Amino acid sequence: MIGRKRQIQELNRLLDSKEAEFLALYGRRRVGKTFLIREHFKSQLCFELTGLKDGLLKEQLGNFHRELKHRGQKDHDCPTSWQEAFQQLAKHLKALRGKGKRVIFLDELPWLASARSRFLPALDYFWNTCLCKDPRFILVICGSAASWMITKVIDHKGGLHNRVTARMKLEPFSLAESARFLKSRSVKLTPYDQLTLAMVMGGVPHYLKEAQPGKSAAQIIDRSCFNKTGLLREEFDRLYASLFENSDRHVEIVRELAKHPQGLTRPALTKIYTTGGRLTQTLKELEEAGFISIHEQFDKKSKDAIYRIADEYSLFYLKWIERKPSAGAGSFLKKFNTPAWRAWSGYALESLVHKHVPQIKSELGITLVDTDHCSWIHRPNQTWPEGAQVDLLLDRADRTINLIEIKFSQGPFTITKSYASELRRKVQVFKEVTKTEKNVYLTFLTSHGLTKNAYQNELVDTSITTECLFQEIL
Q: Which CATH architecture has domain 356-470?
């Protein structure tokens, strides 16, 4: 199994526990939740049920009945309620012999617990009367709808409140984990091509399976996203519809943020949000599912925080796939390395970089320094008429600030005379607007380093490359 070291440690802790355990696992679609549980608990699984999307109660109970028969219980009629179903399961579990932990795995719980199904009260009763008293058992509930799992189970004030003994959010792979995943599948790509692939697929294992040995990143993207049968060509609509009720609200926000790569504040989103109501809840659901991220702005109030798209696939789809519905196989290969692609890839790389701040700190030698990372944007006003924007800002406890410029290019990046003037202005505007008394260091993060010239020597305090993002951070 690739990566997931912390998660495996937690699962092993549950196996070693002397008490009954109740694990709530959540994370976005396609991230590998089901694989993790089946693979790690394959010797302990004694019952598994997966919810059917939009399934009727009768259909869900029919699937339960077939799974129980598969496990050897053939003397039961198909249950007519979840209360009866869990009574049957309790009888099956009590008859199990042998030592060691046994795992009951209920996958896609939000689909099982449909409205008026009475699933959650029945599950609560099953845990209280059967499982919690028997240290042999681990109950694992799993769902892709992160907000539903949190509000209906983990933080719910009644029913299953305080029943959960462990919670786990499964994130997409880091760049280091993605690199090892690709290597395990004999896919050999340069770090540059791996970054290119990550800017389209993120670290979603199911998407990364599209990579084939002997193919470049551009070929893999073209086949997956533009071939008529490509996995990611029509994934967008399925992705949001499977996770959220009334997903139009969520898609509207994501679409708007895609138009503003530098992000939007909450007040700005409020002005353009037209679907109506529940903006706070919708933003929370998108954040918990990993589709958007919130970035505090340096030296500003929380209301000025910036919302940005965090899901690489969504950003790529809205820019390159949806706008070209008639584009077919080979179309992306024509766009690759055009000015439009280079401009877009710079913004896409910023999203990846914000997810790998610990790797950047390690490369800068400040791992042990308490650090806040954030964005910074100054829009022109009467006091300071010149605007400025910083891709990533590290505010360090050692009275130092790194202003990090992020550049993605095929070769060494060259600071030209005009760009040098822009950099001087940016640093000056930052110092004047923030009135900071800390050290301010201009730092460059590039894909192939900087071209050595007079401007680089004058302006850049530190230069690091994107290869540092592939470090394994425990």
A: 3-Layer(aba) Sandwich (3.40)
